[in-house]
Request: fold
Amino acid sequence: MTPATLADRLDALLPQTQCTRCGYPACKPYADAIATGEADINQCPPGGTAGIVKLANLMGIPPKPLNPANGVEQPLALAVIDESLCIGCTLCIQACPVDAIVGAAKLMHSVLPDWCTGCELCIAPCPVDCIQMVPAQPAHEWSTADADAARQRYYAHQERVARDKRERESKLAAKTSSSTPLQDPQALEAAARKKAIIAAAMERARAQRAAVQPRNTEAVSEEVQRQIDEAEARRVRLHHQNPA
Reply:
């Protein structure tokens, strides 16, 4: 059995809560790590003892107790939002790996109990602590059908996030392109030629002033002289733009 095939079979045994308590970003990366020997079979609290036994049987090794560093086994709990406290910040929506929270910016959010995996990833981002975990009602064990449905929602969520990112990047690229006018080589050359002509004319004007300085400007202040220079420069530019 190849590592890829083994990883797929291991992933099929995981609860698909995508809670990251195993130390990996989702169930599939954890399955990949088990298949390659990088991770142990006892790092999934939602799967608990029963899940460890399934993984051990597939791997052909003895089961072992859940690693306490990854958490403790406990009954399924679901997230509930106190709607009177929700400020509509959308941070919980962004954190949910299976799109089990609905709402919009500055509007009340709600959790879809049939979709919630109990991952608890929505709790930490909430700035007003309006989310808490409550026992699933009616209490039931997380089934294979629940896991399969959660896996599909997780991948749909990943695809949507990637699509939204591509759209944002495309809009940004289009905006950047539209804000940067295309440079016509001929227009650039003409502008450079015009700039050079003006610069040469201004230099000739300065040379002429240096050769024949009016006597009534010998004692003017620096500010007055600056104004005279600017006026002469404007005259030269106007002469170039509108030659007689």
Remarks:
- The two ends are 91 Å apart (CA to CA).
- Residues 213-217 have pLDDT under 50 and may be disordered.
